[in-house]
Amino acid sequence: MSKKMYKQFSCNRMMLHEHRTGLSLQLKKMQRGEGGETSSIDEQHLEEFERLVDESMKSGMQVTLSIADKKGAGFRVIKGIVKNKDIRKGEILMITERGVEKTAVRYILKVES
Predict the structure, then answer these.
(1) Is the Cβ–Cβ distance between 85 and 68 less than 8 Å?
(2) How far is the CA of 2 from the CAs of 7, 10, 11, 14, 93, in angstroms?
(3) Domain chopping of the chain, boundaries
(4) Is 107:67 a contact under the CB 8 Å cutoff?
(5) Pick from 73, 68, 64: nearest CA to 38
């Protein structure tokens, strides 16, 4: 019986060349620090995030963004007013004390007013 079950699922061990290539490219990107999405914002936080960003753009309210370091080592905090959001590029433009800063949405961990 155990041999039969083993043979039944042995085909799952095969991997297509395309899958193997895709996995190796993904591994190389992660090693270079270009890994995919790092943001772990759930649906409820995403709605709150969008509301705060829109409110900051319309009324000039200051928001605080916690942003993950691109290499995953830590995070930094940016305080400012959202000037523009570019959904196509996935970026937010903020006016801060240091000037205008561009931030990728995928690295945002938390948004507070």
Answers:
(1) no
(2) 9, 12, 16, 20, 60
(3) 2-32, 43-112
(4) yes
(5) 68
Q: Give a three-class secondary structure readout of 42-60.
A: CHHHHHHHHHHHHHHHHHC
Give the DSSP H or E segment for 20.
Answer: helix 17-32
Q: Is domain 43-112 given the CATH code 2.30.30.100 in the classification?
A: yes
18: tokens are 């395309």
Using alpha carbons, select from 46, 20, 25 the residue that is nearest to residue 36: 25
Q: Mind listing the pLDDT tens digit for each residue in 99-108? A: 999 988 888 8
**Please, are residues 57 and 84 in contact by the beta-carbon 8 Å criterion?**
yes
The model's pLDDT over 55-96, given as tens digits with 9 standing for 90+, comes to 999 999 999 988 887 666 678 888 999 999 887 888 899 999
Distance of alpha carbon 37 from its chain centroid, rounded? 4
Q: Which residue's entry shows tokens 């772990």?
A: 40
Work out the burial of residue 27: count CB atoms within 10 Å of its CB; fewer than 13 is exposed, 13-18 middle, 19 or more buried: exposed
